[in-house]
Amino acid sequence: MRKLITLVVLIQVCVSVALAQTDEPKVEIFAGYSTIATQSRIANKDIDNIGGITPDQFRQLAGFDLASNDRFISTNGFEASVTRYFSKRVGLTGDFSGYYHRELTGIAGTLFGTKTSIYTILGGPHVRFVNKSRVTPFIHALVGAARVRTSYRENNNPSPLTVDDSSTRLAFALGGGLDLRVNKRVAIRLFQLDYSPIMGKDRTLTANDGTPIVLNGRAQEKNLRLSVGIVFR
Predict the structure, then answer these.
(1) Domain assignment present for 3
(2) Which domain range does residue 213 map to?
(3) Buried b / exposed e across 203-226, counting CB within 10 Å, b at 16+?
(4) Structural domain tally of the chain?
(5) Residue 7 domain-assigned (yes or no)
(6) Each residue of 69-94: pLDDT tens digit?
């Protein structure tokens, strides 16, 4: 009888522990809108030379700058992430995002239609500060890669000059935000704000007419990322 009672008690304890573990979600999935204020526009300081002509030489010859001095553009896109928690507060996040932008850009006195896309794959530790309120703050430190592409096409020309600039670079997302619990399984991400630098990279492009364009990687992209959306637990 004692053995039976002991067995029953052990079973009840095990069931209670199992139920307690299932009460605390181990996985969070986030999906939502995201925007990056990024320094992805090619500026004078990014150009070593175009066809052997430097930005300083072009300014002396033409009387105006070869390209813009403003590197910032505002992109719109999405972010999705999965966080696996190994304790009540600490987990590991995998993050994927994509951003897009179109504009007219002046280069060497000529207007080019440009299309920019940025894709990032990041991962790293994630910490949430669980409390008795419905609002849960969190922080994370993510590292990975960014695929940055900008295509240039000369505007209003039946035989346009075109250039494609694609590179894969080291990227980060360092920041955090606030989640508002709706119920046990759903929360609203009120905001997530990250400092999201993308490292520079030296590269040489070739236009469709054969003109070489030499770009330097000295200028790091010091970007800011803002995201909002839904969290599923």
Answers:
(1) no
(2) 26-232
(3) eebebeeeeebebeeeeebebebb
(4) 1
(5) no
(6) 888 999 999 999 999 999 999 999 99
Asked, for residue 13, whether it belongs to a domain, the answer is no
What pTM, to 2 d.p., does this model score?
Answer: 0.85
Strand runs labelled E in the chain: 27-38, 47-50, 73-85, 90-107, 110-128, 135-154, 162-181, 186-195, 203-206, 212-215, 224-232
Q: How many CA atoms lie within 13 A of 233 on its CB side?
A: 18
Quote the tokens at residue 123: 């991962």
> For residues 33 and 226, is the Cβ–Cβ distance under 8 A?
no
Cβ atoms of residues 112 and 134 within 8 Å: no
Tokens 């600490």 label which residue?
Answer: 90
What does the DSSP 8-state code read for residue 222? -
Q: pLDDT tens, 143-175?
A: 999 999 999 999 988 999 999 999 999 999 999
Beginning with the edge strand found earlier in the chain, give each strand of the sheet holding 212-215 in spatial order. Answer: 47-50, 212-215, 203-206
- Does any domain span residue 227? yes
φ, ψ of residue 11 to 5 degrees: the values are -65, -45
Q: What is the CATH number of the domain that holds 154?
A: 2.40.160.20
